[in-house]
């Protein structure tokens, strides 16, 4: 009983984004990762431009 409750808690703690990624196909997953990398690069460029 206690283990079942703990498993339910772990499942509810998962981020919705992680669940979505698990559902995505390989092509969609790569597209999502590319988009994230582009966003990170853009943020870094802004940060560097403010330092200079």
Q: What's the quick description here?
A:
By secondary structure, the chain is mostly helical.
What is the end-to-end distance?
59 Å
Annotation, overall tally of beta strands: 0
SSE sequence, one letter per element: HHH
> How would you sum up the global shape?
elongated
Global structural class: mainly alpha
CA gyration radius, whole angstroms? 18 Å
How much helicity do the residues have?
over 70%
User: Tally the helices: what do you get?
Assistant: 3
Question: How large is the share of residues in beta strands?
Answer: under 5%
Mean pLDDT: 76
Main beta sheet strand tally, sense and closure = none
Uncertain segments: none
Describe it.
The protein has 3 helices and no strands. It has 52 residues and is mainly α. The longest helix has 26 residues. The chain is elongated. The chain starts with a helix and ends with a helix. The model has no long low-confidence stretch (mean pLDDT 76).
Fill in the keyword field for this structure.
88% helix; 52 residues; 0% strand; 3 helices; mainly alpha
What layout of secondary structure does this protein have?
Layout: H1 2-13, H2 16-23, H3 26-51
């Amino acid at each position: 009983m206690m283990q079942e409750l703990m498993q339910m808690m772990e499942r509810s703690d998962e981020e919705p984004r992680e669940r979505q990624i698990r559902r995505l196909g390989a092509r969609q997953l790569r597209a999502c990762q590319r988009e994230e990398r582009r966003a990170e690069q853009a943020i870094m460029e802004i940060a560097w431009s403010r330092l200079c």
